[in-house]
Design a protein that fits this description.
Layout lengths: L4 H24 L7 H17 L23 E3 L9 E2 L2 H15 L6 E7 L2 E8 L2 E7 L5 E3 L2 H4 L25 E9 L1 H14 L8 H9 L4 H5 L3 E8 L9 H10 L8 E3 L2 H13 L8 E8 L2 H7 L9 E5 L4 E13 L5 E12 L2 E7 L3 H7 L6 E5 L7 E7 L20 E3 L6 E3 L5 H12 L11 H9 L6 H4 L4 H4 L7 H14 L3
Helix pairs in contact: 1-2, 12-13
The protein binds 2-(butylsulfanyl)adenosine (IVH).
The site of 2-(butylsulfanyl)adenosine has 15 residues, from strand 3 and strand 8.
Length: about 500
């Protein structure tokens, strides 16, 4: 027998609430309380009751994030107020001058500034009406953007319905109609994993950086594809109708309190403090989970912001200090081929060592052979290299051609084991077909032991490479029959280190 309809409604409400809470814990706060399996079970339970009681259907149900069978059309949306951009500078003197100018214009009143990271993502406007996500649009030309609602609905950190966090979920208590602007982005680690799986599938060319990955993922035709991309959202500015907050800081807090993650900002009142904070952020740049290309300084008070106003394109109350670009020029000595764990062969440029953003690099990836052709690179060319955070350095473009350069064709034989190399239909990737290729085995084992997989501490590339070379391990199972006497034959291994590694192998069995 069907449960009474009112009890079903209650159950639906409480499941939705619980799932939303777990979404927030997982996608926003990164501190999940339940396992993926328990989470999936909650969703399945909700789906089944919703199916039985369609009268309680709601577009903001967590089961309705991904529109099925519909392709995103990207119509045009006119922004209620133009989406402005920011004045940019690379000079700290210009930031100091800007602060002085703002202080002069404001006069005697107390002035407070906020400083926050400039996230390198895709600008997006979210419109909530009566507490429900109505529309999402890209910035476009500032006046008119693209309608990306169906795809943005799949981003788990974007609430479909606003909730008061911690207290009540009574919609009457919320700022119900509000436009929030922010950045859609991809974390660096998620970007690296996505690229790895895209190139393993060999169907898509990997993305050049997290921003391109975010932009490409947001513009997918099918929301079900976007749903599988690890996109996130952080609010950073108030849109039309959201200017009722007394300050920027209060806006960010209010937004976070209804479940929309917002950027972390710090308040300062002097030029010296602001510049110190910016310099520290630049030093810490690689420690941010996402790419930042600078810091934004904003005047905090909304009244003061209004008094300063905007030019046609930029507000006078904010400025972006951009970090030094992590790009340099070098010469390609040689192009080599690297075999990945799934056999995909990646061309790599060995370059004359050059410092890029404080790190000396001597190799940069060329991604795949389509990319080699697109860039038109060859040995001896002078190229621009870019390093983005902890992402592998890459070649951006050819600055000047080596006049006697010869084009680099994809290899016909695996550079490591000599087996045949094939390119599957509709794939970008070329692969070594030999499953026992030692390089593939080494990469696969290294990945298997890495933090992203079995997390066997102490089993890095150097150890795996020796284990494979000495034929002590040739597949995953082999890891579990390594003996102490094997390990003692490896470089720098003594009893203690061997014992630790064996313990780590043992421990990984429970993962
Ligand atoms: S404020 C009216 N704050 O950078 C000012 N923008 O050219 C609106 N961005 O398209 C922008 N992080 O999408 C602001 N913390 C931040 C930001 C930020 C990234 C983007 C924004 C805009 C571009 C500025």
């Amino acid at each position: 027998m069907k449960p009474a309809s009112s009890s079903a409604e209650k159950k639906i409400r409480s499941l939705r609430k619980e799932i939303r809470r777990h979404d927030r814990l997982y996608y926003v706060e990164s501190r999940p309380e339940i396992s993926d399996e328990e989470y999936d079970n909650l969703v399945k339970k909700l789906e089944s009751i919703e199916k039985e009681f369609p009268e309680f259907d709601s577009p903001t149900s967590p089961t309705r994030r991904v529109a099925r069978g519909i392709s995103a059309g990207f119509g045009k949306i006119r922004h209620a107020a133009p989406m402005l951009s920011l004045e940019n500078t690379y000079s700290s003197d210009e930031v100091k001058e800007w602060i002085k100018r703002v202080e002069r214009l404001i006069g005697d009143e107390k002035k407070e500034f906020v400083v926050e990271p400039k996230i390198d993502g895709v600008s997006c406007s979210l419109v909530y009406e009566n507490g429900t996500l109505l529309r999402a649009a890209t910035r476009g030309d500032g006046e008119t953007g693209e309608d990306v609602t169906l795809n943005v609905r799949t981003i788990r950190s974007v609430p479909l319905a606003l909730v008061k966090i911690g207290e009540t979920d009574n919609p009457a208590a919320l700022p119900t109609t509000i436009e929030v602007r922010g950045e859609i982005y991809m974390e660096k680690s998620d970007f690296a994993r996505l690229n790895e799986s895209l190139s393993a599938e060999g169907k898509d060319a990997p993305f050049a950086n997290p921003r391109n990955a975010a932009s490409g993922s947001l513009r997918q035709k099918y929301p079900s594809v976007t749903a599988r991309r690890p996109l996130k959202f952080l609010a950073h500015s108030a849109g039309a109708g959201a200017r009722t907050f007394p300050s920027h800081m209060e806006f960010l807090k209010a937004v976070a309190s209804v479940g929309i993650p917002s950027v972390k900002a710090s308040g300062f009142s002097s030029s010296v403090e602001i510049m110190r904070h910016i310099r520290r952020a630049e030093e810490q740049r690689d420690n941010y989970p996402f790419e930042i290309d600078g810091m934004v300084v904003k005047l905090n008070s909304s009244l003061q912001q209004e008094r300063l106003g905007s030019t046609a394109r930029q507000p006078r109350w904010a400025i972006a200090y951009k970090f030094a670009p992590r790009r340099a020029t070098s010469k390609i000595k040689k192009i080599t081929f690297q075999v990945g764990r799934t056999g995909v062969i990646t061309p790599v440029a060995e370059i004359e060592p050059v410092a890029v953003g404080g790190v000396v690099i001597s190799r940069a990836t060329l991604h795949n052979f389509d990319e080699v052709a697109r860039l038109g690179v060859a040995e001896g060319d002078t190229v621009a290299v870019e390093r983005a955070g902890d992402v592998i350095p890459k070649i951006i473009k050819v600055e000047s051609k080596n006049p006697s350069a010869v084009p680099i064709p994809p290899p016909k034989k695996c550079p490591v084991c000599g087996s045949t190399v094939v390119r599957e239909e509709r794939e970008v990737a070329y692969r070594c077909v030999n499953p026992s290729c030692p390089e593939q085995i080494e990469r696969a084992l290294t990945h298997f032991a890495s933090r992203d997989a079995m997390n066997i501490e102490g089993m890095g590339e150097a150890v795996v490479s020796q284990l494979v070379a000495k034929k002590m391990v040739s597949d995953f199972a082999g890891i579990y029959s390594i003996k102490e006497s094997d390990l003692l034959e490896l470089e720098l291994f003594k009893a203690k280190k061997a014992g630790n590694l064996l313990a780590a192998v043992e421990e990984s069995k429970s993962r």
